[in-house]
Specification:
α7 crosses α10 and α9 crosses α10. The protein starts with a helix and ends with a helix. β2 and β3 form a beta hairpin. The chain has a six-stranded mixed β-sheet, sandwiched between helices. The protein is α/β, with parallel strands linked by helices. Helices cover 52% and strands 9% of the residues. It has 13 helices and six strands. It folds into two domains: 169 residues, Zincin-like (2-Layer Sandwich); 108 residues. The longest helix is centred in the middle third of the chain and has 23 residues.
Length: 312
């Protein structure tokens, strides 16, 4: 018997791969700001109609249509619009996914919404809460569009400004086995929200890698750099993560921030880490939050991490 779920998954993957063939000239050129980069409704050629409650899909299979119906119900989608030649938006109370026009790009939007809702559930399970603010996610069709929107190079997977995230095209992340970047970026944004931007960058970055399970990926990425360059003090890690200018320095800092958080969890446990984060969200200083959670001041905690972690 043919497994229907497998067929649906294959169909979605095929559609995602189809969505990468549109040229820059055919693509609506985004303005410099992320807000203006969203698709603009065309007054004379607008199609916001649904097919039996399903977002508009171009020549897709019945299996994919059924999958889109399921996701619509599961994630309580309450916004679903499409503008011919411009793209569309699909969303619920927590997310707005804006996708550019192109073959089957609604499947990009639905795939992103599915993945990001799962990430939200994991975050809420860990902390007992998740941000109520709406996160806007912009999905470019091609890498050149991502670069022009964000000004970032290929090694920087996503740009987050305030409550707007621009992420690399999904087919590129998928081909490079980097789909964990989706939950990672959400976890990083979510921690900044629940701590009111009170967490240090190394904690945001390292926790996002910890919860998304990126340890092996980070280890593989720094293998290209000489071992003698891997050493960083906690202060250096924080400084590099704030700047994020050099690919080599940034990737080493990503790896080291992950190890710093892993050391905290191994030494004190997830509950203590959770306590520190929630205390930061309640307005406590870093010293106050870390002393209550770990029994050490913030600086003493960093010293303890450095003592327990090789190459930090």
């Amino acid at each position: 018997m043919i497994n229907t779920k497998v067929l649906i998954g294959v169909s979605l993957l095929l559609l995602v791969s189809l969505g990468c063939g549109k040229s820059t000239e055919e693509q609506t050129k985004p303005a410099e700001s992320a807000q203006a980069a969203r698709p603009i409704p065309l007054q004379s050629d607008t199609d916001t109609s649904l097919v039996e409650g399903v977002p508009p899909v171009l020549k897709t299979s019945a299996l994919v249509v059924e999958e889109l119906k399921r996701l619509t119900e599961q994630h309580k989608i309450n916004r679903n619009e499409y503008w011919s030649g411009a793209g569309g938006v699909v969303g619920n109370d927590y997310f707005e996914i804006w996708y550019t026009d192109g073959p089957a790009t609604i499947t990009h939007g639905m795939r992103m919404l599915d993945d990001i809702m799962k990430a939200r559930g994991e975050f809420e399970t860990y902390f007992g809460r998740a941000p109520m603010e709406t996160l806007v996610i912009l999905l470019p069709l091609e890498m050149e569009h991502y670069s022009s929107w964000t000004g970032r190079e290929w090694w920087y997977y996503s740009e987050i400004k305030a409550d707007t995230m621009t992420i690399q095209p999904l087919y590129i992340l998928s081909k490079r086995s980097l789909m964990l970047a989706i939950p990672h970026e959400y976890y990083q944004w979510a921690m900044s929200k629940i701590t009111n931007n009170g967490a240090p960058r190394w904690l945001e970055e390292g926790f996002a890698s910890h919860l998304s399970g990126e340890g092996n990926v980070l280890t593989q990425q720094i293998d290209e750099f000489p071992d003698e360059t891997h050493a960083m003090s906690p202060k250096q890690v924080e400084d590099v993560l704030i700047r994020e200018e050099s690919r080599q320095e940034s990737r080493i800092a990503y790896y080291q921030s992950y190890r710093m958080v892993k050391t905290l969890v191994d030494s004190f446990g997830d509950e203590k880490l959770k306590q520190a984060v929630l205390l930061l969200g309640q307005g406590h200083t870093r010293d106050e939050a870390f002393e209550q959670a770990f029994g050490l001041s913030y600086e003493q905690t960093l010293e303890s991490i450095a003592d327990r972690t090789e190459h930090i």
